[in-house]
Amino acid sequence: MNDHSINFLRDSLNHHYGIRGSLDQKSSFLVAISAIIFSASISRIHEIPFLVLGITSFIAVLLSIMVTFLPLTGRKKKWHGLMCWWGFKEKDFNQYEQELKKAFLSDEDMAKEYMTEIWNLANYSLKPKTKILKIASLILSSGLIIGFILFLV
Question: Between the chain's N and C termini, which has fewer beta carbons within 10 Å?
Answer without folding.
Answer: C
